[in-house]
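User: quick one, fold this
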Amino acid sequence: MIPSPKVPTYDLQPEMSAAAVGEDVAKTIATGKYEFVMCNFAPPDMVGHTGVLDKAVIGVEATDAAIGVILEACKANNYGLFITSDHGNAEVMLTEDGKPVTSHTTNPVPFIGYDPEGKMQFNRKEGEMSDVAPTMLTYMGLDIPEDMKGKSFV
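Assistant:
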């Protein structure tokens, strides 16, 4: 596990540990040891909570760059990649009158899939968080447990 930086507030180091997380995940993928690798990027959420827009942009850009490193590792090692979030935050940083928004949003979040063979096709554009695990299980060729109520996107 890569620790978060020790700063009073994350707007003081908005990239947090995104690059280190991306590199660590890429190295883990390259080992080929695991069929499934999962990580969480904190900057868009944690820097979003500060309400400092320009710093949230830096946090999002650092996360985007780190996901790019992971994507390249997925391409090089024949891994699929799924990207999503459980809530929004950094996409709405200011109210209409310019005041900071520091809370989570209820906006829909993207769910993106990459298949190195180019065969995976999502069958719809909207879903729920409960659809994420069934989608990943289907992609991996594993059975979806009966108690999972979500529906696969593939």
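User: anything notable?
Assistant: The first strand starts at residue 81 and ends at 83.
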